[in-house]
Amino acid sequence: MPDQLLETVAWYFKTTDEFELIPNKLTNAKVTLLMRDLISDAELSEAISFHGLRHSHVSYLLHNGIDIDYVSKRVGHANVSVTLQIYAHMLKEKELAQDELTLQVLDNE
To answer: What is the pTM of this model?
Structure first.
């Protein structure tokens, strides 16, 4: 877990009377409500669903060059094909960027 997230979680426990960040036996609806509470407590301006947070996490990792096989396993996709299908638009952008970089490298030789 990144240090900033650990600090945020520590802050949450210090400023609330909660003993669990996310309690057991959750439904999707309950997670959404908990996310709203966390966003409100953190005084963030925009709401995000748990699914949106997960999607942002995957997008961020892929954008920053994390291996797609690793990302696929990390988020529990059945196989890398699922990840490729969902995030193909991002991977196309990366491919175009790699094409440009390749041309720059070849031009410099």
So the answer is: 0.57
What does the alpha-carbon distance between residue 35 and residue 37 come to, in Å, rounded to a whole number? 5
What number of other Cβ atoms are within 10 A of residue 57's Cβ?
A: 13
- Could you read off the pLDDT of 28-49 as tens digits, one per residue? 777 778 788 888 888 877 777 7
Pair of tokens at residue 54: 């997960």
Q: State pLDDT tens for residues 52-90.
A: 888 889 999 998 889 999 999 999 999 999 999 988 887
Whole-number Cα distances in Å, 71 to 64, 86, 91: 11, 12, 13
Q: In 10 A of CB 38, how many CB atoms? A: 18
User: What are the sequence ranges of the domains in the chain?
Assistant: 1-47
Measure the CA–CA gap between 22 and 77, rounded to whole angstroms. 22
Run of H or E including 96 = helix 88-107
